[in-house]
Known about the structure:
- This protein is an alpha/beta fold.
- It folds into two domains: 5-164, NAD(P)-binding Rossmann-like Domain (Rossmann fold, 3-Layer(aba) Sandwich); 169-298, N-(1-d-carboxylethyl)-l-norvaline Dehydrogenase, domain 2 (Orthogonal Bundle).
- It is 52% helix and 12% strand.
- The protein is built from eleven helices and eight strands.
- The chain has helices at 13-24, 38-46, 55-61, 74-88, 102-115, 166-194, 198-208, 210-216, 223-242, 248-261, 279-298, and strands at residues 5-9, 28-32, 50-52, 64-67, 93-96, 118-125, 136-140, 156-159.
- Strands 3-2-1-4-5-6-7-8 form an eight-stranded mixed sheet, sandwiched between helices.
- Helix 2 (38-46) links the parallel strand 2 (28-32) and strand 3 (50-52).
- The chain starts with a strand and ends in a 7-residue tail after the last helix.
Amino acid sequence: MSLKTIAIMSPGDMGHAVGRSLGEHGYDVIGCLRGRSERTRALAKKGNVREIATLEEMVLQADLVMSILVPAEAVDAARKVADAIRATGSPIAYVDCNAVSPQTTATIDGIITGAGGAYIDGGIIGGPPGRGPAPRFYLSGPHSHVMAELDGKGIAIRDIGGPVGRASGIKMCYAALSKGTSTLHVAVLTAAEALGLSQELEAELRSSRPGVVDQMGAIPRLPANAHRWIGEMEEIAATFDAVGVTPHFHLGAAEMYRLLSRTPFAEEAPEEMDQSRTVDETIQAVARLLSSRVEDATEPGGDRS
């Protein structure tokens, strides 16, 4: 099967960059933007994603649908595309590239396959095309070969074979370490701030763990994406729990992303964030939120949960 037209759902930060890169390599990239935000529409235009009026038209025109959106929307998006597949009879290939658990990807497989589509389990590791090394698209399931020709077209294809669930599983394990570690950094620095030990801890870390200090430099970038990563941490927790590993690390990580999503900095879009903001400013904002929570809990009649 040769791919000519590729649909992106939804052309956000990662999706529009993938669409732009594929377009630069000769593919016709389309998307149904019905009901999407003005930001998504602007990103779609930036990514040269051609707008299609309905999902039915989209699945008729496309050879492949790439679902790239927040984990919480993955199942609903698949149901909408499945309805369009049934309405049109199009046996389109559908790859879920979202940060979901093997259990969730199995659910989506049933939705797409049950409608007559060809399902591919996917998981993206790395940043958007054009901002460093090409993102790796891990794939599994019986139809994963459909995406082989996209290798080197701004993205790197990693077909690991085997059944649906393997690609999502490796994404869960990788993100558990990468994004999970980021929340541990936030938790440690916030606790030090609350204890009045920020300067002392920083001095010790710079002396004994300078590499960790460098990693902590990414903290100011977290609030803008925190709302996306709450669900991702919950999917990781479910993945771990299903194989007998404690889910509590990543339920805690989800809570840290909830805190970050409540800071004023979370109102920024990733492409508009203040590049001058420091780690200290970010941590101080989180510490203020926690301080308010503690004060509320200790007041008579306060919530102590």
